[in-house]
Amino acid sequence: MTNQTIEPKEKQKAVMPGETTKPGLQFMPLVDIYENEKALFIVADLPGVDSENVDIHIEKSELLLTGKAHRDSFSRILVEEYQVGDFTRRFTLTDTIDQENITATMKDGILSVVLPKSDVGRPRKIHIKTS
Amino acid sequence: MTILKWRDPLSEWDMFKNEMSRIFDNTNAGRSSARRAGVFPLMNIYEDTENLYITMELPGVNGDDLDINIDAESFHISGNRKVDVALKDGHYHRREREGGRFSKKVLLPTRISTNEAVAELKNGVLKLSLPKAEEVKPKKIHVNVG
Asked: By CA distance, what is A49's nearest residue in B?
């Protein structure tokens, strides 16, 4: 794993339903999503985004993640291998998420969101009592 | 290790093609050329009269995992991006983030003065500020009236 070299990935433009009214470029952040018995985890690369400029919006069963990237303004561009723009991505959640207890942390341009599962949806082993 | 030459005709062509595909919003063409030409981390180079600025997106990489060497004409960046794989239980739905080693050497467009070079890592973006060497800075020539 550690000896593997990284292939560069060009940022994918975010595809939003309907017309977008936001100015500027919108990219889809690269994410890892995993879950265990207790929670669902979303880890997203948001380079150039300060924690204050991250927004997580949950409505019904949809989580909308947006991040405003810091943009330097330079007079002259000599090489542009990547584009700088904001990040946005939608995720559909199952209704078993305990929406009150979602936590998010931001470090070195990486956002980690923990979405705990509510007790209702958690798999449970039912003991059968013998009389 | 890949050495990127300044004014490499191929990458100039790629830049042109990227620019064209961006103008016509043909995302597929841009994607394929970037995959062929790029080496992680992708970088942007800017300049003003005093400095060269190089930015790279390195989310999750901290200063201890980075090695940057510069001389008057080039810089070399290498490091390791660690992506957590400490998942003991459960399973992945998506794995798009990639970890691993990287190394990239770039010849600079102008000579720089290494003494005052500054590297800053913030929110996963590395920014190098490299003062141009005195001899390449624009100069005003005073005209003596004889």
From this structure: B123
Q: What is the DSSP string of A1-52?
A: -TTPBPPP-PPEEP--SS-----S-EEEPPEEEEE-SSEEEEEEE-TTEEEE
Q: Are strands A26-28 and A86-92 parallel, antiparallel or unpaired?
A: parallel
Q: How far is A62 from chain B, CA to nearest CA, in Å?
A: 16
Contact residues on chain B for A43, CB-CB shorter than 8 A: 84, 97
In this complex, the residue of A81, A108, A110 whose CB is nearest that of residue B44 is: A81
Residue B45: other Cβ atoms inside 10 A:
21
Q: How much of chain A is helix, strand and coil, in % rounded to 5? A: 0, 50, 50
How high is the mean pLDDT of chain A?
A: 85
Backbone φ, ψ for residue B16 (5° rounding): -60, -45
Whether the predicted pLDDT of A14 surpasses 90: no
Contacts of B18 in chain A (CB under 8 A): 80
Per-10-residue mean pLDDT, chain B, length 146:
58 68 54 56 92 94 93 94 77 90 92 94 95 86 86
Contacts of residue A65, defined as CB under 8 A and 6 or more positions apart, other chains included, come to: A29, A42, A44, A54, A55, A56, A57, A87, A88, A89, A90, A91, A111, A113
B39 to chain A: closest CA residue: A8
At residue B114, the pLDDT reads 93
Peptide bond into A23 cis (omega under 30): no
pLDDT at B32: 41
Q: B80 near B36, Cβ under 8 Å?
A: no
Select the more confidently predicted residue: A115 or B25. A115
Q: What does the pLDDT look like over A96-108, one tens digit per residue?
A: 788 889 999 999 9
Q: How far apart are CA B31 and CA B21, in angstroms?
A: 9
